[in-house]
Every structure is written in structure tokens, then in C-alpha cells.
Amino acid sequence: MTVSAQVDNQAVLTPEVEANRKADYPVHPLFLNRWSSRAFEEKEVTHETLYTILEAARWAPSSSNLQPWRFVVAQTEEQKQKFQSFIKPNNQLWTKHAPVLLLILSNKFRQDGEPSGAHAFDAGAAWASIAFQANLLGLATRAVGGYDREKAREVLQVPAEYELHAVIALGYRGAPETLAEDFQQRELPNGRRALSESIIEGSF
To answer: Are 12 and 97 within one domain?
Structure first.
């Protein structure tokens, strides 16, 4: 069974998603409509919009309610230039157009000083919340792993107890034509392997 273009009366799949993504089971269109683009409009993201997105991350699931996530936010040109100094050159080609860049971190330790086994897991939940709330507000996001973590730690003065995860580019989706040709060809929602290939019933 595949999900139709309309699961309820309020939400539909966007045309590019309808053409490129088919669900094995009927999920809400939010999960299909969210995809990671590289093209961004030169349009400001207001303080209220950005903080609404981060508010969603605040309510992500959290082991023992430790909320280990932190977000380093870059919106001014000076702040974004700092980020560009540690983002790898191929990713600079498009991240330089994003109106907001975020670095997601997580505290590796519990309040008693013991290592936290769930800090990265929880940071991932916060990232998902950012991505989905942004999509609900008509914005796009893309997580960037291609950056120099040690340089980022130095430039942003990140304390040793925090692990660096991904840089998130955030803004309003732009036209693919604004990207370099190689990127233009990839500016489409991608697919997923069949659900059955990810499920192990009982044990391996």
C-alpha cells in the first residue's frame, strides 16, 4: 500500500515529493514533504520564526530529561563567516546562501559527572524536531557533516564536555538554478529503501 497525495483534509504532498517519494504505509505527509535541499532564498528568517523552530527542539524526547542539546546560532554576516571558516569548501558553495546556520552540540556528561549514554541520541531527536517544525513553517533544512570539528571547536570556543554533531543550514527553499550545476541535478527529494529491509523481527 502506498500513501496517497492526501492523508487528511489539511495536508498534501508537494508536487516534487509526489513525483519522487512513495511510502510503503500511510504516514502523515509531513514526513515525506521534509527533504534536505541545498538551495536557499535570500530571505530573512525572523527571530520569532527561528525561535519557534528551536522551541520545538526544546520539547524533543530526552533521557532523564537532561536535555543535553545546545545550539550555536549564526545569523549575522560576521557569525556566518565564522562558520564558513570551518565548513569544507564544497559545502561552502551553498551554505553561504543560507540565512541561518546552527551547530548542534550535546553535553557528554550527566549532572553527577558520569558519562551520558544518550546525549547523541537525544541531540538527534532535537535535530528531527528542528527539521519538521521548519517544514511546517515553510522553511527548509539540511544537516552538514562536512566540516572541521576541531577548528569549529576552536573558533566557537566550545568546551571539551560538548560533542559537536552537525551544522544545520536553515532558510526558505530557493530555486535549484541558484546552485552549481552538480548540485542542481541532486536538488530533488530522495527515496528510501523498503521498510522491510530495515526491520529485524525478534533477532538477527
So the answer is: no
pLDDT (average), residues 79-98: 97
The predicted-structure confidence for 101-111, as pLDDT tens digits, reads as follows 999 999 999 99
Residue 134 is part of which domain span? Answer: 36-180
* Domains of the chain: total: 2
Q: How far apart are CA 173 and CA 17, in angstroms?
A: 14
Confidence bin at 145 (pLDDT 50/70/90): very high
